[in-house]
UniProtKB/TrEMBL annotation:
The gene is rnz. It is an enzyme of class 3 (hydrolase). This is Ribonuclease Z. Its cofactor is Zn(2+). Keywords: Endonuclease, Hydrolase, Metal-binding, Nuclease, tRNA processing, Zinc.
Length: 312
């Protein structure tokens, strides 16, 4: 059975707190794992969450501020120590290659050759995902240092309609052939096309947007996604600070979700300036603009990608 879920390994911003670790997000997708922004303590949080180095196929770093990358050394060394044999692709801004390599070789250890560097340049880039059941794109965000957001997309497909198949006598192996080849000859000699027996099925989409001010790239990443994981560092009354430091407020995250037709909004990257008593206000302020499903995450939460949209 396929699993599509977000495992929250950390949800703080620049300073971890007693209840929130530095960033860390593992997106599990049909047997593949994409680890976004492993901050300090990620290796230990993985143990608490019950996930291992073998679950990581991608390491995606948005930028090289410490709360988004200081966990790289531990994760890399755990990949080596645990003998992970499959390739692990590492995506990061090319402008931060020097920082990546310092982190990658931060201490003495028996190295691994499974990590493949995928530096990102330009305003937008499509990453080579090989035979993975998704595409992965990156877009440059608006932050004091170069930062990228990521968007994962499953290709669109079709849903076969049982009634239409039965009416044409298509069953068993013929159904798979019809899906793959687009047309088959029915038992009665008629040619049946895939379009006659199916409706379009939108592929599922997830966007990961960390440190940024509002910009076109935020909306491009978030457009029509099933799950939007987005920073909401500040509450509305601190919007001037958010603008000064290149961050979003919870209210802005809610407006993005509403404008972009997002199905489930995940708020994270919470500033240490706020106490537990303030946290309900993040979801409340996002909900002022967005009427959909809002999750203000806590460390070690698991958030499902919403069920597939019904075929039109």
């Amino acid at each position: 059975m396929s699993v599509r879920e977000l495992v929250v390994l950390g949800s703080a911003s620049a300073v971890p707190t007693r209840t929130r670790n530095h960033n860390g997000y593992l997106l599990r997708w049909d047997g593949r794992g994409l680890l976004f922004d492993p901050g300090e303590g990620t290796q230990r949080q993985m143990a608490h969450a019950g996930v291992s180095a073998h679950d990581v196929d991608w390491i995606c770093v948005t930028h090289f501020h410490g709360d988004h990358c200081l966990g790289v050394p531990g994760v890399v060394q755990r990949i080596a120590r645990d003998g992970v044999a499959h390739p692990v692709d590492a995506a990061f801004p090319a402008s931060g290659t020097e920082y990546w390599r310092r982190l990658r070789h931060a201490a003495v250890f028996r190295d691994t050759d499974v990590i493949r560097e995928r530096p990102i340049t330009g305003a937008a880039a499509r990453l080579d995902t090989g035979d993975a059941p998704f595409t992965l794109t990156a877009r440059r965000l608006s932050h004091p240092v170069e930062a990228y957001g990521y968007r994962l997309e499953e290709p669109d497909g079709v849903t076969m309609l049982r009634g239409e198949l039965a009416a044409r006598g298509i069953q068993g192996p013929l159904v798979r052939r019809l899906q793959q080849e687009g047309r088959v000859v029915a038992p009665d000699g008629r040619t049946v096309t895939r379009e006659e027996c199916s409706v379009p099925r939108p592929g599922q989409k997830v966007a990961f947007v960390m440190d940024t001010g509002l910009c076109d790239a935020v909306h491009e990443l978030a457009a029509e996604v099933d799950l939007l994981v987005i920073e909401s560092t500040f509450l509305a009354e601190d919007s001037a600070l958010a603008s000064e430091y290149g961050h979003l407020t919870a209210a802005q995250a809610g407006r993005v979700a509403a404008d972009c037709g997002v199905r489930r909004l995940v708020l994270t990257h919470i500033s240490e300036r706020y106490g537990a008593e303030d946290e309900p206000r993040f979801a409340e302020q996002a909900a002022a603009a967005y009427s959909g499903d809002i999750v203000l995450v806590q460390d070690l939460d698991r958030v499902d990608v919403p069920p597939r949209r019904r075929a039109r």
